[in-house]
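User: what does the whole thing look like in 3D?
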Amino acid sequence: MLRTHTCGELNISHLGQKVDLCGWVQKSRDLGGTTFIDVRDRYGLTQLVLNTDNDDTLRETSRGLGREFVIKVTGTVIERTNKNPKLSTGDIEIAVEAIEVLNAAKIPPFLIEDDTDGGEELRARYRYLDLRRNPIRNNLVLRHKMAQEVRKYLDGLDFIEVETPVLIKSTPEGARDFVVPSRMNPGEFYALPQSPQTFKQLLMVSGFDRYFQIVKCFRDEDLRADRQPEFTQIDCEMAFITQEDILNIFEGLTRHLFKTIKGVEFENFPRMQYADAMRLYGSDKPDIRFGMQFVELNDIVKGKGLGLFDNAELVVGINAKGCADYTRKQIDELTDFLKRPQIGATGMIYCRYSTDGTLKSSVDKFYNEDDLTNWAAAFNAEQGDLMLVLAGQTDKVRKQLNELRLEMGSRLGLRDKNTFAPLWVLDFPLLEWDEESGRYHAMHHPFTSPKPEDIDKLDTAPGDVRANAYDLVLNGTEIGGGSIRIHDRALQSLMFKHLGFSAEEAQKQFGFLMEAFEYGAPPHGGIAFGFDRLCSIFAGLDSIRDVMAFPKNNSGRDVMIDSPSTIADAQLNELKIKTAL
Amino acid sequence: MLRTHTCGELNISHLGQKVDLCGWVQKSRDLGGTTFIDVRDRYGLTQLVLNTDNDDTLRETSRGLGREFVIKVTGTVIERTNKNPKLSTGDIEIAVEAIEVLNAAKIPPFLIEDDTDGGEELRARYRYLDLRRNPIRNNLVLRHKMAQEVRKYLDGLDFIEVETPVLIKSTPEGARDFVVPSRMNPGEFYALPQSPQTFKQLLMVSGFDRYFQIVKCFRDEDLRADRQPEFTQIDCEMAFITQEDILNIFEGLTRHLFKTIKGVEFENFPRMQYADAMRLYGSDKPDIRFGMQFVELNDIVKGKGLGLFDNAELVVGINAKGCADYTRKQIDELTDFLKRPQIGATGMIYCRYSTDGTLKSSVDKFYNEDDLTNWAAAFNAEQGDLMLVLAGQTDKVRKQLNELRLEMGSRLGLRDKNTFAPLWVLDFPLLEWDEESGRYHAMHHPFTSPKPEDIDKLDTAPGDVRANAYDLVLNGTEIGGGSIRIHDRALQSLMFKHLGFSAEEAQKQFGFLMEAFEYGAPPHGGIAFGFDRLCSIFAGLDSIRDVMAFPKNNSGRDVMIDSPSTIADAQLNELKIKTAL
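Assistant: Here's the predicted 3D structure for the full assembly of 1162 residues, as structure tokens:
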């Protein structure tokens, strides 16, 4: 090793030791005969002190040093007069005898400090420099630890990590595939997996019985703010189990991660029906760090002459505790928030329950004090509260009120990044209606098993069929989802039929799986976690980008290596493809 | 869980317990009133005994069972009268009260047993059934354990596993890339990584200092018997180290794996110069499970009138201990082996040192008893030995003799799969001459550092420049290779120039790396192991296929899922590409 110690490990117990350190120059202060240099590596920061009065070489070398130069220093650990309690090495410094410049550095395009002056684009272009900053590096160290703990937990339960192929087969169902032209099979293409779904099911047919994999998956989608074309899943599958077993084992995984990584233990790990989540939170991924549950008002508010309410399928509201003193401006802000096109509400009704006990609404023409007292009772509102009410078509108004609830949660400081509230959402619908294609789609995927007691509704009321499907939600974000799978050829064929597959299409795309079901497929089910998202929540970040070493931008580009790029005609010719711009 | 126990865990200590087991019917014997069924899962085999005399349901169900049916049984653990010491469950059986068929099975196309009757193609087509067989499943369990132990060892040494991107940039250097058309950037392509080489070097520039990753890599090559288009590497990189540090740490990894997985501890972990490996074994990956080192004979054999020897650049041989009694037929077999086109020798000279003390060669016309006594002395031959000699151009004759040595090693039983002999081969040449392109290529890759003391030979004698490059060899197979890298822009530019890159090409392909070297790149180096190969050696297999869950065939096809395949015109249109067949 070029070093005897790292820049993070020396302390008072090393006094008098001769050491070699390597690292990057964080900063340098020349005080005449004495120069102080902070040298940094992944493990910490150590102060060097150079007495340059009688050492020309040392003086020259130290004067030539710039920020981010890579140096090797030899010296002796001495006690600092001016201790820095914020640093693990803050009690000592190194009296330097020799400095060797291992590599010079140009002045970096932005500050390599916890708070940097670099904009997003510049930092992406020089990602390798951004990765030197503690907050970013710490995210990747956290990610490493989490992956290790996931493996430790699952290995301890006899799960086997099996690598499934990356070059697989394209299937039109689901999101868009990335494809890979095959040179050896001209005119044919591999696809990159959106998930190892069919392979893990085949492993169950093979008797592996407890499988997992931390695995890259790929989706060629237009990238929204927080999507990446390649992302990582913790992918799991089990045989001979019920839904209850999966919930318990992966509640266990979640608890294990929180305990070992963050020292957090959950008293409760609640479960909620999908139907209840929609009714009480207007979302299949409720943020239950705070209450503010929906209150449905149809029975109370209808029939008083207010067309907005009378004509609405659903009148529903939330109680914003302690917000009765919201100004007209604050209320208008909320209304504007709701009217943005991405939310699309037409307006908001409110009712103040003032601290003086009076009730005043924005629809006082239609509702007298008695009526509003009924409202307050329904909302469980107290003096000082503000009731916010929306009306309209059920699905739409629930979505809008969900947004309002989250906004109010944020405004009231109820969504603390250091508070964690996990939740299982259960019994998702099997199918969802797609307006665009005019047919039902699988809500989860086509391999999800309907609840046995609902199978006979497949023909009569497909939208009412529930699935043995579950999501794990954390702080209002879906971090995992899974289901009990179909393991019977006939039922799988029936599902494909209901999803609009012709028999030929089903056979061409998934014939191998349906055939496998005929050779002794055990009952099985599983779950997959979005590992990037999970890491970002653990890191207290809003974006998944900073828990990835080399993310791509919203156009799917890596601006550091400048990829994608054109390729040589010879390559295209070998692959027997042409670009058609 | 549908079961209380697995099929591998019940023993005499469970007598009297009521249990539920799930698994596959291995076989069934109906002895009139009593039926015996072996039920199998991943963990083992348990015998069921069914008294069907008084239970019509049980009789009907058991008669309906075929091989590979998936069943759930409920019963009581009882002691066997006829114990089977070969099975962990051999002391007990289950007196069955109820059987539930969880899924029926068609008769499998081949026997699901350790020795199967299925041919390679059939087993590939039904890979999910082949994976049910113990030997195949055990390979994947072994692989899982090895991956866990690799991670445990490296994590313990502060290595961080960082996921590098799969969608990267195509570079013409090296093997052929798989490419991925970018829909969002029409006319441009990603490439799948042949290794994360540049990314791991950038992580060193970022100060990560100890990186590893168990990672899929891709090469679009014509597949030889034991190549796969996607394969897995244990990829590692370290900063602030010397070659010696890397050798020690990864010797440690190898020792750790052998100790924890196979209970093998090595006394020696030898090292050899590349030049010596070529001289003594004719190979850069000598199998040192046995000696039979090359003996060079130029000084002894030349000048006696045998043109074959006199005109040869090198006359070199091996001593096949105890083979003096080889028949003419056996010798002819060896000669034919050497004359095969893939080896290409023109012939073989031999000299028997019979047990009666006489020396007799195939070139007795030119060499008398005294000459042959000199041969025997050079070979350290004793009575009963057989000396085998080849002559020709140095590189070629060494390759040929290497093949002969390995063949003789196999014939003499010196290459036992349960004996393990690791070896570091050091100081590889930096460059190798490529006849086809008429220029030097990087022997390892363009980022390998020349030995500082050899840099001045880059212009005068490029072929003599040695690199700080090393391979880890196990039983004659390269399982890992690496080098100290260049970390200086000027030297990297010089290397690209010597490899025939124009300044523009170098900039276009690797500009980001060379730029990174200007911002404080530390000295660094690393290694990558072929994980599939390592697993196959641990499993005692010749092929890597059976340590992969879903391998592809020699045409790069997955015959189970029938991939690659054609894709829809709509997909091609979106990607702005056309096939050009």
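In plain terms: DSSP finds 17 helices and 23 strands in chain B. Residues 134-156 of chain B form the longest helix (23 residues).
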